[in-house]
Amino acid sequence: MYTYKIIKEDFYTGICAKRTRTICRNRPLEVGGLYSHLGKGYPGTYRVLELIEEE
């Protein structure tokens, strides 16, 4: 399991939201990468800020 800190980002303007969220995934994500459709409850595009924990 990988735990990441993510932030919502507007795809067209690049403006980021103020609050970060944490997300757990079975597959590794690229830190600094921009992802869309991360799953239920995560609409829009999100930027991965950092890897918090790797189990």
Describe this structure in words.
A hairpin with an 8-residue loop joins β3 (34-36) and β4. The protein contains no helices and four strands. The chain is mainly beta. It has one domain (2-54). Strands 2-1-4-3 form a four-stranded antiparallel beta sheet, with no helix packed on it. It is globular. It has strands spanning 2-9, 16-25, 34-36, 45-54.
Q: What form results from the Cα inertia axes?
A: globular
State the domain count.
Answer: 1
Biggest sheet, strands in spatial order?
2-1-4-3
Mean of residue pLDDT values: 94
Q: How much helical structure, as a percent, in the residues?
A: under 10%
Q: State the low-pLDDT regions, or none.
A: none
Brief rundown of the structure:
With 55 residues, the protein is mainly beta.
Descriptive keywords:
55 residues, mainly beta, four-stranded antiparallel β-sheet
Summarize the topology:
Layout: E1 2-9, E2 16-25, E3 34-36, E4 45-54
Antiparallel strand pairs: 1-2, 1-4, 3-4
